[in-house]
Design a protein that fits this description.
Blueprint lengths: L1 H24 L8 H24 L5 H9 L8 H23 L25 H22 L9 H20 L5 H11 L1 H5 L1 H23 L2
Helix pairs in contact: 1-2, 1-4, 1-7, 2-6, 3-4, 3-5, 3-9, 4-7, 5-6, 5-9, 7-9
Length: 226
């Protein structure tokens, strides 16, 4: 239960910090943080949770990470479901808090609510194929960094920095394409509040991150084998 609660809290922080920065601060008149600020916010949430709760649960904060670590031989299969449920519930709780805040001024509407999308719902108008490739490749590389940075042979104590910066870089690259998912829990939580198109496109942001992560787990397992 301690591990599951840590995953709940950690994923809550990731969605509140990352999506919160996108919904509340990205386009704030004259002093908004923009895409670079949102990218940094996502990276900072991971970095801070890795060092605060990582020693309890491993700070997956993401179902794709959990599946990727399992595919890489770093995580027990029997723990996957409790972790994923905790992550999704934490993400939904954060989206609920963000919804309350975002609608807390007169005439406010949530708009896209930082939900992930492709086609007409892509920030840059990118289509399905671009979205599929982006989510698969970005999650693949994210897991390669995670597996490498947390390897027993890697320099110790710096994994949080590498992982946080990797997520920042991923967002810098891919926000214009899909609003950047690489995390099914983050996608599910925002889509539930947007409904409609966000729900109909959600399959991509569940399937591609998980496939990309598992592919990375298999590749890194091979790279690390003797």
């Amino acid at each position: 239960m301690k591990k599951n609660l840590a995953e709940f809290i950690g994923t809550f922080w990731l969605v509140l910090g990352g999506c919160g920065s996108a919904v509340l601060a990205a386009a704030f008149p004259e002093v908004g943080i923009g895409l670079a600020g949102v990218s940094l916010a996502f990276g900072l949430t991971v970095l801070t949770i890795v060092y605060s709760l990582g020693h309890i649960s491993g700070a997956h904060l993401n179902p794709a990470v959990t599946f990727g670590l399992w595919a890489g031989g770093r995580f027990s299969g029997k723990e996957i479901l409790p972790y994923v449920i905790s992550q999704i519930l934490g993400a939904i709780a954060a989206a609920a808090v963000l919804y309350i805040i975002a609608t807390g001024r007169e005439g406010a509407e949530i708009g896209g609510f930082a939900a992930n999308g492709y086609g007409e719902h892509s920030p840059g108008g990118y289509g399905l194929v671009a979205a599929v490739v982006t989510e698969f490749v970005m999650t693949f590389m994210f897991l390669i960094v995670i597996l490498g940075a947390t390897d027993s042979k890697a320099p110790q104590g710096f994994a949080g920095v590498a992982i946080g910066l990797a997520l920042t870089l991923i967002h810098l690259i891919s926000i214009p394409v899909t609003n950047t998912s690489v995390n099914p829990a983050r996608s599910i939580s925002q889509a539930l509040f947007v409904g409609d198109w966000a729900i109909s496109q959600l399959w991509l942001f569940i399937l591609m991150p998980v496939l990309g992560a598992m592919a990375a787990g298999a590749v890194y397992k091979y790279l690390g084998s003797k």
